[in-house]
Amino acid sequence: MSIKRKINHASVVSFDIFDTLLLRPYVYPTDLFRHIERAHKRPFFFNVRTSAEYTVRQISKQEDITLDEIYAQVDAQFQDMKDVELAWEKMVLQQNPEMKAIWDYAKQSGKKIIVTSDMYLPSDFIADVLHKNGFDGWDRLYISGEIKKTKATGTLFEHVIRDLNITASKILHIGDNKKSDYINPRKYGIRAILYPQVVKNVLRHNPRLDFFLQSNKTSLDASILTAIIAQQQYNKRPHGSYWHKLGFEYAGPIIYGYTRHIEYKAQKSGLEHLMFVARDGYTLQRVFNTFNTDIENSYVYAPRFLNLICRLDYAYKDETQSKAIIDYFAQRNSKIKKLLDNVTLKDWSDYHNFIQSNIDLFIACADKERDNYKKYLLSHAPSTNRIAVVDTITARFSSQKLIQSTLGFPVSAMYWSVIRGPYEGAYTYSEYIPNTGEPTDAFTKNWNFMEFVMTAPEYPIKNITPDGKPVYAKSVNAAETIRKQIYPDVSDGAVEFANYIKSLFGGNDIFLQGKTLVSYVNCLVDFPTNADRKNMNCVQHAYDSAHSAYIPLFSVKIPLPMVILHPKRAIHIVRNTLWRSPLQTLALCLMYPLKIKTRGPRQIRILIWPKLQRRYFSLLLRFSYKCLYSVSVGQPEEIR
Asked: Is 323 left (phi over 0), alpha (psi -120 to 50) or beta?
C-alpha cells in the first residue's frame, strides 16, 4: 500500500524530523561539529562537544537531554559555540522534497499533522527551522528533550496517544529509524511506515558512491560530498543533460576544491590579481568568482606559440618549432621573407642556423610581439605586480614563463600538480596536490578526464591578435567540435554545484581535499554506468601539444579487420583501454587467464584473469611477514 493510501486511512499523520522531513548535508550527523570546528578555527570543538553530550547522557536520570544540559558540561572556552551550533543547524538543514509532497498531501486531505522527534534541540528552534523549510500547519510538536520521553523507548508514542486522546490505530507515523520509527510505534498499535534514509538508500544502489565513502570513511569532505551527491541523485537533481549532471557531480567538486585552495593561497601570499590561463582556466575562474569577493582576476590567453614568437624560446632540434617562427615572421617582415626566398631549408639544422644567422632581425621582430603582448597583459592587471598565474598541470611552465618574462617581474603560479623535471626549480609555484608519490596520487587514473572537465568551450588557441582576441586553429578535429558543443553544459553544472554549496553553507568552505577528489574521480573510472559508457564514447582527447592526434577518453572500438590482421596491436590497445566492452574483456581473459608471482616457496600469489579491471575475490593466507599465499580473481590489491 502506498504512503498516500495509508494516509487516507488515518486521522493523524505523525512525521519524524531528521532524515525524514529535513536532511543534513553529512553522512554522519556529528560531522556538523567537525565542520564547525574547521570553519571557525576552534580546535578540539568536535571532541569537547561530543564528549559533553556522551557524559550528560550517562549521568542523566531522564530519557533524553537538552542542548542547554549539554553545554552546561562543555568547557568554558566553548560556551559561545552553542549559538554557533544553532546557527549552523538552521543554515544546513534542508527540506526533503519527497516528504514535503507527502506533508502537503496529508494537509490537503484534512489530516491532523503532528511532528515527533527524539532530539535535544529546543522546540521553538525546531519550529523555526520547519517553517523556514516550508513545513507549516502542524497541530502538535513533540520533542523528546523537553518531554523527557523518547521514541527509542516507545514512551513518547504512549504520551502522544494519551495527549491526543485518540485510538492508536488512527495514527500513522512516518520515520527513518527501524526501531524508533517502525517497531516501537507498532508496539503501541500505531501504524507505521519505515522511510529509508536518503543517503543509505542511494548508496545501496550506487556502488561507485558507496565505494568512495568506504574508502574515505574518516574524511569530513567525503561525508559532505557523499551526502550532497546522494541527496541530489535521490531527488533527481540537477535537471538537464547528462553533461550538466556530470558537471555538477564531478567538475563542480573538482574545481570547487581546487579554487578554494587557490583562494587560500592567494590570501596567505597577499596576492592582488590572479590570471586564469586559457583554456584550463575558464571554468576555474567562473567557479572561483562564486565565492571570491576580494581578489581581482582575469581570463588570459597564453598559448605556447607566444613563447616562440615573443621569446624565440624553441628547441633547436625541433624543426616544427623553428620552422613555425620563421614562417610567422616571414609573413610579417619583408626582410625575413626576402632572406627566406633565397635559401633552401631542409632539416632542423638549416632552420636553426637561419634564425641564428639573422638573430638581430628576429629579436627585433620578437620584441615587437612581446610589447604587444605586454600591453594585452597589463590591460587585464593594470595596477599591481602581486600577480599569480592559475593553471592545471605543467611540466615546462610555459604560460608562467611567458607571462613573467613579458611583464618583467616575478610572477608566481598555482597548479593542481607539477610534473617533475628540469624546470621545476626555476619558478615559484604552489600545488594543490604535491606530486611526491605514485602518479595516480596527483593525476588520478585518467588525467585526460580531468583536463576535459577543466577546459573551455573554445577551439585550440594558436595566437592572439594585437587587440587581445584569440586566434583559433584554422582546421580542427571533429573531436574538438564535439567538446565545444557539450562543454558549456559541463561548465554550467560546475557553477551550479558551487552556487549550491554557497547557498547551503552560507559561503563557508567544505574543505574538499585533493586526495579525496582523486579518490572520487578514480571511482568514476572504476565504476562506469551505462550512461557514462554511452555518452563518454564520443569524447576524445588530443595527446600531442599540436592537437593533431586524438584518442578516446575512456573506451575504444576495435575494427574487425584490425583484430584479424593485427591481433597483437588490437590486444595492446585493449589492454590500455580503461572502459572495455564485455567482448574486449573476454578476449583479454582468454589471452591472459593466469599469472603466478613467486618469491621462493614462501611467497606465492596466483592471479586468475588478472586483466580484469576490478578485483572480484581475494583470499590471503599470511603466516608471517615473509610467508604468505594468495589467490585473486581480477585485478588484485597490493599486499602490504
From this structure: alpha
DSSP letter for each residue of 149-193: --TTTSHHHHHHHHHHT--GGGEEEEES-IIIIIIHHHHTT-EEE
Question: Apex CA 40: angle with CA 226 and CA 514, to 5°?
Answer: 40
Torsion of CA 632, 637, 639, 640, to 10 degrees: -160
601-606 contact pairs (CB < 8 A, 24+): 602/626, 602/627, 602/628, 603/627, 603/628, 603/629, 604/629, 604/630, 605/629, 605/630, 605/631, 605/632, 605/636, 605/639, 606/630, 606/631, 606/632
Confidence band of 546 (pLDDT split at 50, 70, 90): low
Q: What value does the mean pLDDT of the chain take?
A: 92
Q: What are phi and psi of 473, to 5 degrees?
A: -55, 135
What single DSSP character describes residue 18? Answer: B
pLDDT band at 599 (very low <50, low <70, confident <90, very high): confident
Reported as a single tens digit per residue, the pLDDT across 169-227 is: 999 999 999 999 999 999 999 999 999 999 999 999 999 999 999 999 999 999 999 99
Cell of 404: 613573467
Phi, psi angle pair for 292, to nearest 5°: -75, 135
pLDDT tens digits for range 154-167: 999 999 999 999 99
Question: What is d(CA 184, CA 157) in angstroms, rounded to the nearest whole number?
Answer: 8
Q: What is the pLDDT of residue 640?
A: 39
Is the N-terminal amide bond of 238 cis, ω within 30° of 0? yes
Rounded CA gap, 602 and 627, in Å?
5
Q: Whose grid coordinates read 609555484?
A: 429
Q: Residue 634 in contact with residue 617, Cβ under 8 Å?
A: yes
Over residues 325-343, the pLDDT tens digits come to 999 999 999 999 999 999 9
- 392: pLDDT strictly greater than 90: yes
In degrees, to the nearest 5, what angle opens at C-alpha 168 toward C-alphas 167 and 170?
75
Given this model, what pLDDT does residue 639 score? 40
| pTM for the full predicted model | 0.89
Find out whether 527 and 206 touch, Cβ atoms under 8 Å.
no
Task: Identify the CA nearest to 591 among candidates 603, 573, 579, 578.
Answer: 573
Cell readout for 130 is: 520547519
Task: Please report where in the chains the cell 589492454 appears, as a residue.
Answer: 575
Output the nine-digit C-alpha cell for 626: 615473509
